[in-house]
């Protein structure tokens, strides 16, 4: 799966080079915060049913920083992106009678490469830019009480696996070059030992237009 992820990253840069050579498409840079939710994923307790309490920020969202992303428009409707995220997980789910199960600040690292399409036809606006994406990633989560790979390994190892990702998002442009971006991504792991999870991100975005190069 690492080879698949590296291949997708290579494709991102190849497409970016193609766009730079043939179209003057813009780059978009993003920096912001992210929130990881391992509860609403359809697993047994302390995790829960799929989409259950999806917006329960207080009990289930682990909010951290940073998230950084670089995106490249191929044309007006398609862009490719790569993203890196860091977090510390303190919430893992709930039990009956206990609305929040806490864990010991488990390290979270995520790297993702996505192909995205704008769905501007939903809004007749130059400022609002909804989008959807598909891609691959690789995520590491430190072992803890509820995600231990094996008892022999202890609870300190950083364990990683490839994921397949699907996302929806919305950009709002304050001007032609500065805006705000929200994205929600579902990450389904290829390995049972890495939990499926949701990741949300909120960031400031900056657009840099290219000149046409030959």
UniProtKB/TrEMBL annotation:
Keywords on record: Signal
Family matches, as InterPro entries: OMP/PagP_B-barrel
Leader sequence segment: 1-19
The protein's name: Outer membrane protein beta-barrel domain-containing protein
Organism: Aestuariibaculum lutulentum
